[in-house]
């Protein structure tokens, strides 16, 4: 179930894991910049608490999420179920919108 086989659509899931990892890294630094310069507020309650506790921990947490996705890819353990495909497509679409909103807000506010 978790080993990638040559099934239709598995390449999409691996691509989306890469995409989500990179998007998360970019978003981490953009969000960090906005928070540090009081341009935006973190709306995710968990990430807001982490940022308030220690801004460096905020960045490390975001980067750890990306590392986790890459570990799935490196160890060839990307789930190849239809549920995983659906969730990664949804997450990628939703996170892309959020990322561009962050970029837009920072562009307007700077």
Structure description:
The chain is an all-alpha fold and 110 residues long. The chain contains 4 helices and no strands. The longest helix has 28 residues. The N terminus is likely disordered.
Indicate the topology.
Layout: H1 10-36, H2 45-53, H3 55-74, H4 82-109
Helix pairs in contact: 1-3, 1-4, 2-3
Which key features would you list for this structure?
mainly alpha; single chain; globular; disordered N terminus; 76% helix; 110 residues
Helix content: over 70%
Distance between the termini: 47 Å
Percentage of β-strand residues: under 5%
As a whole number of angstroms, the C-alpha radius of gyration is 16 Å
Which structural class do the helices and strands define?
mainly alpha
- Tell me how many strands there are: 0
Basic shape: globular
Low-confidence stretches: 1-6
Q: Helical element count?
A: 4
Chain-averaged pLDDT: 89
How are helices and strands ordered from N to C?
HHHH
Note the main sheet: none
């Amino acid at each position: 179930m978790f080993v990638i086989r040559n099934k239709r659509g598995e390449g999409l899931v691996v691509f989306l894991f890469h995409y989500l990892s990179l998007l998360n890294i970019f978003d981490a630094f953009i969000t960090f910049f906005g928070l540090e310069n009081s341009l935006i507020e973190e709306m995710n309650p968990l990430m807001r608490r982490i940022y308030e506790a220690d801004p460096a921990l905020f960045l490390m947490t975001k980067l750890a999420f990306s590392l986790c996705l890459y570990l799935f890819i490196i160890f060839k353990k990307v789930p190849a179920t239809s549920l995983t495909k659906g969730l990664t497509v949804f997450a990628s679409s939703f996170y892309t919108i959020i990322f561009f909103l962050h970029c837009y807000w920072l562009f307007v506010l700077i």
